[in-house]
Amino acid sequence: MRPTLRILATEGAARLGQLTTTHGLVETPAFMPVGTYGTVKAMSPEELEGLGAQIILGNTFHLMLRPGPDIVAAHKGLHGFMHWQHPVLTDSGGFQVFSLKSLRKITEEGVRFRSPINGSEVRLTPEDSMDVQLKLRSDIAMALDDCTPYPATEAQARESMERSMRWAERSYRRYYGQSGLESRTGGDAANTGQRVEDLPSGPPGGLFGIVQGGMHGALRLASLEALLRFDFPGLAVGGLAVGEPEEERLRILETVVPHMPADRPRYLMGVGRPEDIVAAVLRGIDMFDCVMPTRHARNGHLFTATGVINIRNSVHEADLGPIDPACTCYTCRHFSRSYLRHLDRCNEILGSRLNTLHNLHFYLELMRTLRTAIGEGRLASWARGYLALRWEERRRSGRGGEAAGEGRADGE
Amino acid sequence: MRPTLRILATEGAARLGQLTTTHGLVETPAFMPVGTYGTVKAMSPEELEGLGAQIILGNTFHLMLRPGPDIVAAHKGLHGFMHWQHPVLTDSGGFQVFSLKSLRKITEEGVRFRSPINGSEVRLTPEDSMDVQLKLRSDIAMALDDCTPYPATEAQARESMERSMRWAERSYRRYYGQSGLESRTGGDAANTGQRVEDLPSGPPGGLFGIVQGGMHGALRLASLEALLRFDFPGLAVGGLAVGEPEEERLRILETVVPHMPADRPRYLMGVGRPEDIVAAVLRGIDMFDCVMPTRHARNGHLFTATGVINIRNSVHEADLGPIDPACTCYTCRHFSRSYLRHLDRCNEILGSRLNTLHNLHFYLELMRTLRTAIGEGRLASWARGYLALRWEERRRSGRGGEAAGEGRADGE
To answer: Which residues 6+ apart lie within 8 Å of B199 measured at CB?
Structure first.
């Protein structure tokens, strides 16, 4: 079914909403934990449910290489494969391919790259990406885009954006079958192992378009205009969290978001730190994904109300207190910093589990706080205090210059 | 409190019982999952409870090196440290020290070895082992023993056994405080960081003695006789599952077990494969531990009613069925072999979790089956069919010669 957003309340540009998808409701603003290979690293589906995750993200690039789309399709899609009954968004694979740098070649047709798994040549065209995502049966699929590097000249950004727009059109036509049955049996099919009889009768969800254009406001607006020629049920802002300064990112959001249709969900791809999410919600974004909570967890970096702690630090060796006394997560209710540091030192799986539970709880609790604040019309005042505290903490810890893009990664 | 065994039913030498400890009841025959570093690898305490684990094992050797006994003591022992409310048995560290081979030196005093963590010299005497186990506050502690290698001549086995018996006496006196306060403040204290005021007023549980003597029946009986001069509340058979043929192990059990006091729990250390456990229960053993289910799980070896499968095998690539259609565990109810193989290939933590859940379920379900069979007086007939099937399977898969000792390991 077509993903549809119902706006329940607004405060300034910020929106409280309910996104309806094939596999159920998502309250927005929403954070999507990243499940690269059909698992949010270290978590069971029931733990994700318990944490309040309502939608997760799967990486098309990784899943097309391992286990391959046909294996997932045989399980009736990612939901059956990974035992997750709630909504799934899949990215297009574009961002990961571009991260390969020297191992890939971009043409108008699409991208060809060497598989990092076995070195074989793989092709990813807009049609390929759609065929894979259709087999993954995600509730929300993403158009294949050319992710403009940072920095980029106006000419580079324009060329990249215009290619993304042509690919968005090809993605749209493929996903919704408007190119007709004939093209589905063409050469593309051979590449993905796609057979016409495998394709479901209609798309299992909806396709989002992605606004590109680098740090150039006029290009961003042109990109949005190009996407609006098609009936995408949702729109994403891509090409951010790629190393640009925070001010640039916020300027782009402030340029683009006000022109995005109010009735469609807006997804800021790959962002970010808690303060980045708050800043983007204030500017009207509804959906987020980032590997930061899960990857940080496995590296022992844990979020607290007063900043990030590194559990590997010897200061925690004999600390009997929880990660965060204010936190109500399973980890903080039952385990000490001392125990978590010990698990980390011994490279114990339970350490990754408990840390991941805590960090995801932190992010999902932040989203609940944001939703409640919007519903009660006190987001602006809450965010003012929150952002001031976070900035103060970053100044204090000397991590003020940390790139927001740290969380935008080539899958987990 | 003193661990006490209540026998509910017997069938031949096999016993159905209830072991009462400081932290509650354990139904016997019991299998103890191994939690080397204060965590049964990949499992949460609640998952262990859900699987029906009633007692787990902690490794003194590992915990004294990381995080050190004082850190655990500050959490009021292993239970508080790892958030496990049920009984815990700790080994003495002896087996692990002996596995170090060239890195250790045995004297009458005890063992000195190089820490595999940081190379520093560490001493482990019977007194040290008791002091550490008292700090871990286990429900059941084990005497420090000299684990006789296999094979050993009668003279070697006798010397080793007699040392173990002298160490058992020293362990007993230290654990139960019969050596008086004075010796507790001696040189030993410096080694373990032990201070008199740290010691609890009475032992938190009970100390088991360990029968040694290699493959020499007369030495085994002499060892048992030596232990019975003290009031150990339970007795273990050690020095098995060290590479000896199955027939030798069963012969030793058949020699020793009939002479062990009927009212005390009998623990066969480090055993073993499912068929080894069945064979030992038939001969009157009540307690087992082995890393096999957990370690096998992380290597993709999964137990089924018809033998062990290797989930890495490509035959499982597109297999939509569960590991074992007869299994009722969480993993088998929700995930395909295809998905588990995929998680293993991608080195995903969830793969280790799901595999471990399944293998531990298999072992704990086996113990439930054994207990029910004894209670209903049909163990012998059930075991006959079971062992025949297992032997048939091993012959078929060519693993007939696999050593039972594979599961006896230097911690996990």
So the answer is: B131, B134, B184
Q: Annotated catalytic sites of B, by residue?
A: 91, 289
Task: Write out the residues of chain A at the interface with chain B, using a CB-CB cutoff of 8 A.
Answer: 37-39, 41-45, 66-67, 71, 74-75, 81-83, 317-318, 320, 334-336, 338-339, 341-343, 345-346, 348-350, 352-353
Q: Cβ of B82 and A317 within 8 Å?
A: no
**Which two tokens mark B7?**
């026998």
- ipTM of the complex model: 0.94
* Peptide bond connecting A200 to the previous residue in cis, omega within 30 degrees of 0: no
Instruction: Tokens for B278, please give them.
Output: 């069945």
In the predicted model, what is the mean pLDDT of residues A280-301?
A: 98
Distance CA A64, CA A78 (A): 12
Arithmetic mean of pLDDT over chain A: 92
| Whether the predicted model's global pTM rises above the 0.90 cut | yes
Residues of A in contact with B341 (CB under 8 A): 67
User: Can you tell me the distance from the alpha carbon of A352 to that of A344, in angstroms, rounded to the nearest whole number?
Assistant: 8
Whether omega before A35 lies within 30 degrees of 0, making that bond cis, reads: no
Q: Which residue of A has its CA nearest to B338?
A: A71
Chains A and B form CB pairs within 8 A to the count of 100
**pLDDT higher than threshold 80 for residue B235:** yes
Please write the tens of the pLDDT for every residue from A364-388.
999 999 999 999 999 999 999 999 9
Residues 6+ apart with CB under 8 A from A372: none
- The 10s digit of each residue's pLDDT in A292-323 is 999 999 999 999 998 999 999 999 999 999 99
Cis check: omega of the bond before A151, within 30 degrees of 0: yes
For the sheet containing B104-106, what is the strand order? B104-106, B111-114, B121-124
Region A205-216: mean pLDDT is: 98
Decide if B353 and A352 are in contact by the 8 Å CB cutoff. Answer: no
Q: Percent of chain A, pLDDT > 90?
A: 85
- Tell me how long chain A is: 412
Q: Where are the alpha helices (DSSP H) in B176-286?
A: 180-184, 187-192, 217-227, 246-256, 274-282
- Which contacts (CB < 8 Å, 24+ apart) does range B322-328 have? B323/B358, B324/B358, B324/B362, B327/B358, B327/B361, B327/B362, B328/B361
pLDDT of residue B179: 46
Rounded CA-CA distance A404/B297 in Å is 38
Interface test with A, best of B34, B39, B48, B412 (most A CBs within 10 A): B39
Of A38, A346, A350, the CB nearest to B44: A350
What confidence tens digit (pLDDT) does each residue in B245-269 have? 999 999 999 999 999 999 999 999 9
Contact (CB, 8 A) for A157 and A215: yes
Instruction: Work out the pLDDT band at A398, boundaries 50, 70, 90.
Output: confident
Write down the catalytic residue from A91, A146, A276, A344. A91
The beta strand positions in B298-369, using DSSP E, are 301-304, 307-310
